[in-house]
């Protein structure tokens, strides 16, 4: 029996009308469906009038045994469709492991493109100037989060990230400390009934006194450049405020210097000397 095919199927991020005809056909003809959330998958399949198919869970807690089982289905010639609960798979979900297993097994892998919160937000942002960097969800806390924020702040191109509504205000405030003047878009509940697009500088958006709800996609515009083509830098006062705040939080001077040197594109030695001077 020949090797089956893995279809990576994009599903709507909100509006059910955004499913493609090709995606519907693949879901209808697949032998088995693998889903990040079987409850949501079955609800979509029911809406599409597709029933009687096995739907297996394959989420972030998938074990090697789960992946081996999927590889076994492919080896038996089954046509598998992998879908997440919303959007394009393998953008911010556990699908990478499945794709790697299928590729290692020599199975054909076919993309069924469609809705994507990343591309939807970019298309309405007006903030694209060439390339962009997608960073997914930022770490919640600690050094990993600070390093991720430093990467975002040091990226001159447009940056797209996802955020939990419970952490959106914190993320906007953290970015406002690093890139206060960069233009940004907060895209909330894209394609859904309560879709909302909020524009302004990062500082403007961070100052909003509101509660965030639903799915949030944040687009950070490219770094501003001056007449000489140089990136706009933080003022000396802004840099000193950052250093003073981090020192007050008990962070080590070397750690502060490492982070700021990446963000500012400056000499680590010079920043370290400056941090020591502020501490003294």
UniProtKB/TrEMBL annotation:
Its EC number is 2.1.1.198. One of its GO terms (cellular component) is cytoplasm. It is an enzyme of class 2 (transferase). The keyword S-adenosyl-L-methionine applies. Keywords: Cytoplasm, Methyltransferase, rRNA processing, S-adenosyl-L-methionine, Transferase. One of its GO terms (molecular function) is rRNA (cytosine-2'-O-)-methyltransferase activity. It comes from Chondromyces crocatus. It is found in: Cytoplasm. It catalyses: cytidine(1402) in 16S rRNA + S-adenosyl-L-methionine = 2'-O-methylcytidine(1402) in 16S rRNA + S-adenosyl-L-homocysteine + H(+). This is Ribosomal RNA small subunit methyltransferase I.
């Amino acid at each position: 029996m020949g090797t089956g095919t893995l279809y990576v199927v994009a599903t709507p991020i909100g509006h059910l009308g955004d499913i493609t005809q090709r995606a519907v056909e693949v879901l209808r003809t697949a032998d088995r469906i693998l889903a990040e959330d079987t409850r949501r998958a079955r609800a979509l399949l029911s809406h599409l009038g597709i029933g009687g198919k096995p739907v297996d869970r394959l989420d972030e807690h998938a074990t090697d045994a789960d992946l081996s089982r999927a590889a076994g289905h492919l080896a038996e010639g089954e046509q598998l469709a992998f879908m997440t609960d919303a959007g394009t798979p393998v953008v911010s979900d556990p699908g990478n492991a499945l794709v790697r297993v299928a590729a290692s097994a020599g199975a054909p892998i076919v993309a069924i493109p469609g809705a994507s919160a990343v591309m939807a937000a970019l298309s309405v942002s007006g903030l694209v100037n060439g390339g962009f960097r997608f960073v997914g969800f930022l770490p919640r806390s600690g050094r990993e989060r600070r390093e991720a924020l430093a990467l975002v702040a040091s990226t001159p191109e447009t940056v797209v990230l996802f955020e939990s509504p419970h952490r959106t205000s914190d993320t906007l405030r953290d970015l406002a400390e690093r890139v206060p003047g960069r233009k940004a878009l907060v895209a909330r509940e894209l394609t859904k009934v309560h879709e909302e697009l909020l524009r302004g500088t990062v500082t403007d958006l961070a100052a909003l006194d509101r509660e965030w709800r639903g799915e949030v996609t944040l687009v950070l515009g490219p770094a501003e450049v001056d007449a000489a083509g140089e990136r706009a830098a933080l003022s000396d006062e802004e840099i000193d405020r950052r250093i003073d705040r981090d020192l007050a939080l008990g962070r080590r001077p070397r750690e502060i210097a490492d982070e700021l040197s990446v963000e500012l594109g400056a000499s680590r030695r010079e920043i370290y000397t400056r941090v020591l001077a502020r501490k003294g």
